[in-house]
Design goal:
Chain B: One of its GO terms (molecular function) is DNA binding. The complex is a heterodimer. By secondary structure, chain A is mainly alpha-helical. Chain A is about 65% helix and about 0% strand. Chain A starts with about 25 loop residues before the first helix and ends with a helix. In chain A, about 5% of the residues are buried. Chain B is mainly α. The chains are: A mainly alpha, B mainly alpha. At the A-B interface, α3 of A face α27 of B.
Chain lengths: ~230, ~850
């Protein structure tokens, strides 16, 4: 009950047709603007910003703790650039010869040579894969993939359709319930208005009668007095 | 008014109409039938059918038998034509006409005989006598053939024809038509109601039949149904089963498939029909056999079935006789052929020309004996009987013609037999018998022979019948037989000794096979065969050549791209200058020889199977001497044996040996890797040399050179890979595009799903909320209403109270005023009294 979504709402949209009345049409834009204002307060300002009004939801789970992840998160939070030597090693995409002081180091040269061999092997694999794909293998693989995809799409569509049906059922039930309850409500309301007007009339009648009675009483009193006088 | 006199000549159209009408109405409703024919009465129609149209009526010429029968019967039952007719097999009219005609002919013949007719004036012939004169009306036109239709028919005739056609084509009567119409109307009404119901149902209005009040719903209940008492077994499963009523199905469909036989029958019929349709397609297109022609066909078929079997006299030369003749003929031929082949003149004489038919071959059927014209004689007799004056007047008795074995008053049918065809095979020897036509019989059958058997005829007269088979005395007979026997024995003795020549017939296949063997040698080899043979040889040679390659080439191991034999040898020999080798000159020599051999082999491979990218062009011939396959195999076996010996598995097979020597990859790497690490590339000599021999600078230079090489290769390879990938993009682009669209759809679907879920959640929550709201509202409203009601009740009570009070008061006041008035009156009276 603490959050706005759990507050009891007194709305029966299928029964309360006051807004649809022709003399109430001017209210609708005003209501829409009100709704928009409230929604704006509910939804986050930007898509990335954390939502403010979702306190009713469970707290977010913490990320799995790992020293690398923690370090990386800390780095991102402090908005520092990636230190050199970390992240992606771009030298693996080229074959640079050792430079500067490393130019005289045999080890550096060896490393460069090994890297070049590895890249060549990778290139060979790439070519081989491409050649293999050129035959029926690639086409088949794509076909299988597309087939699976089609199936998935179909399944998802079907599920969506079913869900929509359920939603419709819910709405239909709501409408039915409200209309049924609405009848009782209108009956009661009618009775209420009748009773109110009847009571009003009754009261007026009573008042009139009271005045009359008072008058008669007065007359009665006068007469008794007069009779007493004459007697 | 035009008066139509019915009758007259029958026309073809009328005949046809009549036939069709009879096929429709039968042979009893002549009035109805005649209503179709304007100019004919029912009687005439009937007469026409009975006398002419009925297919049972014979219109062929009168046969001799029929004539005989007719005359005979006419004599027995004079003028009773209706009785005679069925016996003769013609109509009464036909009989009468024929009778008169026969008499006319007889008369004419008599006149001719007597020379009554003049020379020129031949007098009217028999036909002429009965012919109609001009102006005469045919008394019975029913017996005449129909007059053919003119090309331009009269209007009224055409009208009649069309009307008849219309009436006859009408297959249903009035009542049936009316019923059909009513049925159709009913059906239409039912359909309309159905349609209406359906539409109403579609519109949401359900029209259920009102339930019958006080009656029984036969669709739902079963009258007088009595549930069987629960039995021993559990039948809930069977009861749960629902049986759909088999509506709109016939029994066969219910039973399942058609019987196989039926299917086959259907297929066959269909096929036949198709064939027929194909054949008659154009013919059928403009010719549809009308109903009456079909009927006619059926009638004819009936007629044919009624026809009696053709009864012919039994053959004069029987089956058995014919067989015998054939046998004799064949035996004679065979014997003759055998004797002719042998060329034995002695036996040739024994055989005569043994043709069984003999002279009967060229015999002609002899003429039947002249016969008496009984019919004419009879006719004359009858005529005489009718012409002659009664003998009572004293004249001569009627002269009657003598009839040979013919009619009399003995029986209902005339006597007489059919003349048989004379038998040309009849032996002339027996011509002494009176009847030529009769087959000769050996009346005097020999003892032992079947009596009444046709004798054997032979030109050698072995079975000569003319020789009296019975001798004068039994003793003579015995003598004769004995003689015959001894003669025969002598004849047999003079026969040549049997040669026992067997003719063996071999199957034809063997003969052909023998032919084949001979011809095969003679035959010129077919070009294609030779080519095939050469090709096989070539292939075998190629296989051998492939097997002859070195192991390096066979297994596709790496080979030097550029091979310099001299450099290689120097390198090898330099490497062999090791101390242990120097001590043993013989081993050194051996090593040297091996090295030279190896170089030779390498060179051979480089020339014969050039390496891709090498400088040497292919197609050269190496200097390596050719080694025979056997020697190679021997060498290999020797190596194998030695190796097996070394491993300790003498006599092991190749596979076992390989397994014994083989080394797994890791082990190999363990040994090979350190050795390889010891080597480094030398850029100057472009060789791999031990690391220790190189300085750091040199090593760096070598590595740089190799890096450069790798870079070049990289650029080449990457270009190739990029090309391949580009091509892949083209080849698989369609699939990719499809995958992309599918991905898009999937995302959309998921988004949709998520939205729907949110909606569902929201609406469900809203629903519970609304339930609460509804309850609350109703509750509060009810409270208010209760309150108001209470208030009203109170108001009412108060009102009533006031009302009562008011009444009470007003009555009191009235009383009081009355009293006052009285008092005033009294006062006034008192005043007046005073």
């Amino acid at each position: 009950m603490s959050n706005p979504f759990n507050a009891p709402l007194d709305s029966l949209p299928y029964y309360d047709r006051d807004l649809d009345a022709p003399d109430q049409q001017h209210l609708r834009p005003a209501i829409n603007s009100l709704i928009a204002v409230e929604l704006r307060s509910l939804l986050p300002k930007t898509p990335n910003a954390p939502p403010t009004n979702l306190t009713h939801l469970p707290a977010s789970r913490p990320l799995p703790s790992s020293p690398f992840l923690a370090a990386e998160l800390a780095r991102v939070e402090s908005k520092k650039p990636t230190p050199p030597g970390q992240g992606l090693d771009t030298t693996r995409y080229a074959m640079p010869a050792p430079k500067g002081e490393a130019a005289d180091d045999v080890e550096a040269w060896e490393a460069a040579h090994r890297s070049s061999l590895a890249q060549l092997e990778h290139q060979r694999l790439r070519t081989m894969n491409g050649t293999l794909l050129q035959g029926t293998l690639g086409a088949n693989k794509w076909k299988v993939q597309n087939f699976a995809m089609e199936n998935t799409v179909e399944r998802v569509d079907k599920e969506g359709e079913e869900l929509r049906k359920v939603v419709e059922d819910v709405n239909r039930r709501r409408k039915g319930d409200q209309e049924k309850g609405g009848e009782t409500l209108s009956r009661l309301e009618k009775k209420w208005t009748e009773l109110v007007s009847g009571n009003m009339q009754l009261e007026i009648g009573c008042m009139a009668m009271e005045a009359e009675v008072a008058q008669l009483q007065q007359q009665h009193a006068e007469l008794t007095a007069r009779l007493a006088a004459t007697a | 008014m035009r008066i139509i006199v019915k009758g007259g000549v029958w026309k073809n159209t009328e005949d046809e109409i009549l036939k069709a009408a009879i096929s429709k109405y039968g042979k009893n409703q002549w009035a109805r039938i005649s209503s179709l024919l304007v100019r004919k009465t029912p009687k005439q129609c009937k007469a026409r059918w009975m006398e002419w149209l009925d297919p049972a009526i014979k219109k062929t010429e009168w046969s001799k038998e029929e004539d005989e029968k007719l005359l005979h019967l006419a004599k027995l039952m004079p003028t009773q034509w209706r009785t005679i007719a069925p016996i003769v097999g013609r109509t009464a009219n036909q009989c009468l006409e024929r009778y008169q005609k026969l008499l006319d002919e007889a008369e004419q013949a008599e006149n001719d005989e007597l020379g009554l007719a003049g020379v020129d004036d031949a007098g009217p012939s028999a036909d002429d006598v009965r012919r109609l004169r001009p102006g005469e009306v045919d008394p019975d036109p029913e017996n005449r053939p129909a007059r053919p239709d003119p090309i331009d028919m009269d209007e009224d005739e055409k009208e009649m024809l069309s009307e008849a056609r219309a009436r006859l084509a009408n297959t249903q009567g009035k009542k049936a038509k009316r019923k059909a119409r009513e049925r159709a109307l009913e059906e239409a009404r039912r359909l309309a109601i159905l349609q209406k119901k359906r539409e109403l149902k579609a519109a949401g209005i359900l029209m259920r039949a009102k339930p019958k009040k006080g009656g029984m719903d036969y669709m739902a209940d079963i009258p007088f149904e009595k549930q069987p008492a629960p039995g021993f077994y559990d039948t809930t499963e069977e009861q749960a089963k629902r049986y759909a009523a088999p509506l709109g199905k016939n029994l066969r469909q219910l039973e399942g498939q058609k019987r196989k036989q039926d299917i086959e029958e259907d297929d066959r019929r269909k096929k036949q029909k198709q064939k027929k349709d194909n054949k008659d397609a154009d013919a059928m297109s403009h010719f549809i056999p009308s109903k009456d022609s079909l009927i006619q066909q059926q009638k004819e078929a009936q007629q044919i079935s009624k026809r009696r079997r053709l009864v012919l006299p039994s053959a004069q030369v029987g089956e058995a006789e014919l067989e015998e003749i054939v046998k004799i003929g064949q035996a004679g031929e065979n014997a003759r052929a055998m004797v002719d082949d042998n060329g034995n003149e002695a036996s040739q004489g024994l055989l005569g020309e043994y043709s069984a038919l003999g002279h009967a071959k060229d015999a002609r059927t002899p003429r039947t004996a002249p016969q008496h014209d009984n019919v004419m004689a009879e006719a004359r007799n009858i005529r005489n009987l009718s012409m002659q004056q009664t003998p009572l007047l004293g004249e001569e008795n009627t002269p009657m013609h003598e009839l040979v074995g013919r009619t009399g008053f003995e029986g209902a049918t005339p006597r007489g037999s059919v003349a048989a065809t004379p038998n040309p095979l009849a032996t002339p020897l027996h011509s002494n018998t009176s009847d030529v036509s009769a087959t000769p019989m050996s009346v005097s059958g020999r003892p032992g022979a079947t009596p009444l058997r046709t004798p054997m005829r032979d030109s050698l007269s072995i079975n000569d019948d003319s020789v009296s088979s019975f001798g004068e005395t039994p003793r003579q007979e015995r003598h004769r037989l004995h003689d015959l026997k001894s003669q025969l024995k002598q004849g047999f003795m003079s026969l040549p000794a049997p040669t026992n020549n067997f003719e063996l017939v071999l199957p034809e296949d063997d003969e052909e096979a023998g032919d084949d063997e001979i011809s095969q040698a003679m035959r010129i080899e077919d070009a294609s065969e030779r080519e095939a043979k050469l090709k096989a040889l070539r292939e075998a040679e190629e296989q051998k050549a492939l097997a002859r390659r070195t192991q390096v080439v066979k297994r596709g191991l790496p080979r030097p791209v550029d091979f310099d034999a001299a450099a290689f040898i120097s390198q090898l020999t330099a490497a062999k200058d090791e101390p242990e080798l120097v001590e043993e000159p013989s081993r050194k020599e051996a090593e040297r020889l091996v090295a030279i051999e190896m170089v030779k082999l390498l060179e051979h491979d480089a020339i014969s199977y050039p390496v891709a990218g090498g400088k040497r062009a292919g197609g050269g011939s190496s200097s390596l001497p050719f080694i025979e396959d056997e020697r190679l195999a021997e060498a290999r076996a020797a190596v194998h044996a030695e190796m097996a010996e070394a491993v300790g598995l003498p006599g092991a097979s190749d596979a076992v040996l390989k397994r014994a020597i083989a080394m797994d990859v890791e082990e190999f790497n363990k040994i090979w890797r350190p050795k390889y690490e010891e080597l480094a590339y030398d850029a100057q000599t472009k060789t791999m040399v031990p690391v220790s021999t190189l300085s750091d600078e040199e090593r760096i230079a070598g590595l740089a050179a190799r890096l450069d090489i790798n870079r070049e290769r990289m650029s080449k390879e990457s270009a190739k890979a990029a090309k391949v990938e580009k091509k892949l993009g083209i080849v698989l682009g369609g699939y990719m595009a499809r995958a992309k669209t599918l991905g898009g759809k999937l995302t959309e679907g998921y988004e949709d799903l998520a939205r729907s879920r949110i909606e569902l959640e929201s609406f469900a929550r809203l629903a519970t909320n609304e339930e609460g709201a509804m309850a609350r509202r109703t509750e509060s409203l009810k409270d208010e209403v209760d309150k108001l009601e209470r208030k009203e009740r109170e108001g009412q009570a108060r009102f009533r109270e006031l009302m009562e009070m008011k009444e009470l008061l007003s009555s009191q006041i009235e009383e009081m005023t009355m009293e006052e008035a009285e008092r005033l009156n009294e006062a006034a009276l008192a005043q007046m009294d005073e």
